[in-house]
Write a structure and sequence with these properties.
This protein has about 950 residues and is of the alpha/beta class. Helices cover about 45% and strands about 15% of the residues. The protein has 27 helices and 27 strands. An eight-stranded mixed β-sheet has the order 9-10-11-13-12-14-15-18, with helices on both faces. A seven-stranded mixed β-sheet has the order 20-19-21-22-23-26-27, sandwiched between helices. The protein is elongated and about 135 Å long. It starts with 8 loop residues before the first helix and ends in a 17-residue tail after the last strand.
Length: about 950
């Protein structure tokens, strides 16, 4: 800026300070008018500099000039032009200013104009040829409203017309044209970032608290809600909320008999008479338009973290050129400013509009100042030198701010009158540039924050997907298995799907019944190792059977209206019980939160991890019931057994002692073996296999025993070959069922002394027999005997006399057929032996809980009460289980069931099982004699 133009530096700095929006702490304040006095050239030059300043910093502005524009014949046209400019001229990325109230008011005035035209033309006048469909619709609406006889009908027609019109947010340049419609993009900056962030947080929270399916449902509902909000914001719903300003106490400029609500006020505007045909707008209508214009600006400058508009740092400016005398727009420009000041004095409310208005002379400025001044100070004209900038700021502006802080909204002066021909405002200080928009208020920040939240939420959900199988109770173990606790809603394995769904349904029924209930937790291996792809890896007949047995006991008890009801939680310890301790910690935590958890059952595999789980649960004094765990020292610590662990299965010592006796004394179809080769799993975590092998070897004496230990399943075939080089009379298999297929295949396909080799297996073999009995029967090269922990075949007259079959066995087959289908192959059906043990475990807890509930005046059974009853059982009646009589012995014997039956079974050629011997108390009373070893 050179030459005489430097004189204007102070004035330009003042203009920048007026436009600068204060910080949130300082608060928004109403700005004074900036009135410039000078020649047309001077005022035009100043207006040009003002507009350049607005363009440089991107602040919204409107430049009202006579060059190349149509004349503003009324205030409505000027407001149309101004609002369109303010909306179009804005900083990049900043949301455009919107004028829905002004647009609606102008539309109502256009309807009114059409009504007046129709009245003047008479009934026979045809509709004009309109250039747009919107005009034709408005003309039709005006005619319908005029023809309607009742206000109710008119309201319906008008409401329908408003909805059909949709929401106009920026009025058209000329009447009859269509303004800018509200679109989804118009509202995205205030709805989408917050909405998407909220949906992301909701989805992530739901994924963490419930499950991924629910999280996806929450996300879908949230997205639909956001879409609905955007749709709603782009439509008009007859003004029930959007246009309620028209009928609030803030709008007092136009009221009629119907103006109790917006539709009534709209009808009052529509039917308003035109006092002077040459003046389409009367004072009240002008005030309504200006008030709507200012209210739209206030709305656009509301400070709220929910809106991107809070980031605006420049007030909108309207800069006028000096219209020459006689110009048709000259009077409307002045009328615009005077109406705005009139409303400001009336309302004494903030609005953000800044106006720079030129005048030709001091006299004209004086008359203008008198029309807009407040009665606190006389208007005064200042020269450019007064506005000079200094290092400490602008003294003239600082003085005004100090005065304004002591006075109400309007301040002491409503206009700064500046004589452009007097004084020198040049300064060594640069022109004030105004504060820059803080980076945290950048319009992109909501989107950046939304993106960060969205990325974080997606990360959380991804981690939930990676970590949890069903958050937060079932999670991925290190090897990929899904371990944890579920009520049956999470399916651990395809083979278990049917029975898990059955238990889930029974659980829901128990909880929703409104009756008291207790919860037991089943802890067992319900998944296979994902790394093991062999067929043997899916050998789950045992755990499948135990779950079926549990569900039968649960269903029979709950359907019989037994109280308290029974609920079952399924805790997966992972394959081979490798994560039993970790899962036990979660069971213990849940039991501490839920007093209805009264016992834990399962512990079916004799592993080191099983003992660790027992130790963890023992810290909470939870009663524990072992199903098929037979290790002699399970739950034994130093010199005594755990007081909280009870075992349903016989110990390895009893099983091995009976197996050795039957082997030496001709119970294996006459074989009286004097030599035996024993195979067992020597892996460090396995307690069952080596213990059973040693017990058998000790009990087989004085017979000859060779031991073949393997520490990896791949070693099994080699051990069989080594033994078959000079086989003993009997092969005793003390290993796990997981490796039994490899063992059998090698025996069947190896010349092992010629003839049919006799193989005697431990109770672990039961799971393999359940899935592969027919195949074993067809194998001519071996005869298989084994010692199951329970057998339906034992309930034969030979062993129980005329006692009826235990009710479990009558229920088992129908339930299994319903779960897996009548034609399902054996390798998909559960083990009946394990089902019997699972049934007995559940019935044991149910019996005790029922007794406590009945004897203690319907008191909710607790874990402590269950433990007490198990430790000191009622010996007046022996509970009858599917595997025998159930009466636990003292702690010194590990709470082992007294005289629990030990069964010798054989796989026949047709795959069926035959029970050869039953030693122990299967039923109460006298039993037929069997060939059993003498008591030690």
């Amino acid at each position: 800026m050179g030459g005489d133009v430097t004189r204007l530096e102070g004035l330009l700095s003042l203009f920048q300070r007026i436009r600068e929006r204060p910080t949130s702490r300082a608060g928004d304040r109403l700005r004074p008018l900036l009135v410039t006095i000078g020649t047309p050239h001077e005022t035009r030059q100043v207006a040009h500099f003002f507009v350049e300043a607005c363009m440089a910093d991107g602040g919204p502005y409107s430049h009202i000039t006579a060059d190349g524009q149509s004349s503003f014949t009324d205030l409505a046209l000027l407001l149309r032009h101004t609002s369109r400019d303010l909306s179009a001229n804005r900083p990049r990325f900043e949301p455009a200013l919107r004028f829905p109230l002004l647009s609606m008011a102008l539309w109502l005035l256009e309807l009114r104009r059409m009504r007046l035209q129709q009245e003047q033309a008479g009934e026979n006048e045809q509709a004009p040829r309109f250039s747009s469909n919107a005009q034709r619709q408005a003309w039709q609406l005006a005619g319908d409203l005029q023809a309607a006889e009742e206000d109710a009908h008119r309201r319906t027609l008008l409401g329908r017309g408003i909805r059909k019109r949709r929401q106009i947010v920026v009025p058209a340049e000329r009447p009859g044209e269509r303004g800018r419609l509200a679109s989804a993009l118009v509202h995205l900056e205030q709805v989408a970032p917050i909405g998407v962030a909220a949906v992301a947080l909701l989805s992530a929270g739901t994924a963490a608290a419930l499950n991924l399916a629910t999280a996806m449902l929450a996300a879908a509902v949230g997205i639909v809600f956001i879409a609905g909000q955007i749709t709603a914001r782009t439509r008009d719903w007859a003004g029930r909320r959007r246009y309620r300003w028209f009928t609030t106490t803030q709008q007092t400029y136009l009221r009629g008999n119907r103006s109790s609500d917006f539709l009534g006020l709209a009808l009052d505007v529509f039917f308003r008479d035109e006092p002077d045909p040459g003046i389409p707008l009367d004072d009240e209508l002008e005030r309504l338009l200006v008030a709507a214009f200012l209210q739209d600006l206030r709305h656009g400058y509301r400070r709220s973290i929910w809106r991107a508009a809070w980031a605006r740092v420049r007030y909108p400016a309207v800069v006028f050129d000096l219209f020459p005398a006689g110009h048709p727009s000259r009077d409307q420009a002045r009328r615009f400013v005077e109406r705005i000041e009139e409303l400001r004095r009336h309302e004494e409310r903030f609005d953000p509009l800044v106006i720079a208005f030129p005048l030709a002379s001091a006299d004209e400025a004086g008359r203008f100042a008198d029309s807009v001044r407040v009665p606190l100070a006389e208007p005064a004209t200042v020269d450019l030198g007064v506005l000079r900038e200094y290092g400490e700021g602008n003294p003239f502006w600082n003085e005004y701010l100090a005065e304004q802080q002591r006075v109400a909204v309007l301040g002491t002066r409503r206009a700064f009158q500046v004589d452009l021909g007097a004084g020198d405002g040049s300064s060594t200080e640069p022109i004030h540039r105004g504060r820059r928009r803080p980076w945290v208020t950048h319009p992109a920040m909501p989107w950046i924050a939304m993106g960060a939240i969205l990325v974080a939420s997606v990360t959380v959900i991804t981690l939930q997907t990676v970590r949890y199988c069903s958050p937060v109770s079932v999670w991925h173990a290190d090897n990929g298995e899904c371990i944890g606790i579920t009520d049956g809603s999470h399916i651990y394995a395809n083979r278990l799907e049917g029975v898990e769904k059955r238990i889930h349904k029974l659980n829901e029924d128990a909880v929703s019944s409104g009756k008291p209930y207790v919860t037991i937790v089943y802890l067992g291996p319900m998944t296979t190792d994902p790394q093991d792809k062999s067929l043997q890896a899916d050998l789950m007949a045992g755990v499948h059977g135990e779950l079926v047995g549990l569900s039968i006991a649960q269903e029979k008890h709950n359907e019989a209206n037994g109280q308290p009801r029974l609920r079952v939680l399924l805790a997966n310890s992972g394959s081979r019980f490798r994560y039993a301790k970790e899962v036990a910690e979660h069971i213990r935590k849940r039991a501490g939160e839920d007093p209805r958890i009264v016992a834990v059952i399962g512990f079916g595999q004799s592993k080191r991890q099983t003992d660790e789980a027992i130790d963890v649960l023992g810290k909470s004094a939870l009663p524990m019931l072992g199903t098929t765990n037979t290790y002699d020292l399970t739950a034994r610590r130093k010199t005594s057994f755990s007081p909280y662990y009870f075992r349903l299965a016989p110990s390895n010592w009893r099983l091995a002692r009976h197996a050795a006796y039957w082997s030496r004394n001709g119970q294996l179809d006459g074989l009286q073996a004097s030599s035996a080769d024993v195979f067992y799993d020597a892996s460090k975590d396995d307690q069952y296999s080596q213990n059973l092998a040693r017990d058998f070897a000790d009990s087989f004496k004085p017979g000859t025993v060779r031991i073949f230990a393997y520490s990896d399943p791949s070693q099994v075939p080699g051990k069989v070959e080594e033994a078959c080089a000079k086989p003993a009379q009997l092969f005793y298999y003390a290993g796990r069922s997981d490796e039994f297929r490899s063992f059998i295949n090698k025996v069947a396909n190896t010349s092992c002394g010629g003839g049919s080799l006799v193989v005697l297996g431990g109770d672990e073999v039961t799971k393999y027999v359940s899935d592969n009995g027919a195949e074993l029967g067809r194998t001519e090269s071996l005869r298989l005997y084994y010692t199951p922990l329970a057998a339906k075949e034992a309930w034969d007259r030979r062993w129980v006399g005329d006692r009826p079959l235990q009710t479990f066995y009558a229920e088992f087959e129908p339930v299994v057929d319903k779960l897996v289908g009548k034609t399902a192959p054996a390798n998909l059906r559960p083990s009946r032996t394990h089902a019997a043990i699972g049934y007995d475990a559940a019935r044991t807890i149910i019996n005790v809980a029922e007794r406590i509930f009945g004897e203690q005046a319907r008191t909710q059974p607790t874990a402590a009460a269950i433990l007490s009853e198990l430790t000191e059982p009622d010996r007046r009646a022996f509970p009858q289980g599917a595997s025998g009589l159930l009466l636990f012995g003292p702690r010194t014997t590990g709470h082992e069931v007294e005289q629990k039956p030990v069964v010798l079974a054989k796989v026949e050629k047709n795959g069926a099982t035959t029970v050869l011997q039953v030693c122990g108390r299967l039923v109460e009373g006298a039993q037929p004699e069997a060939s059993c070893p003498p008591n030690p």
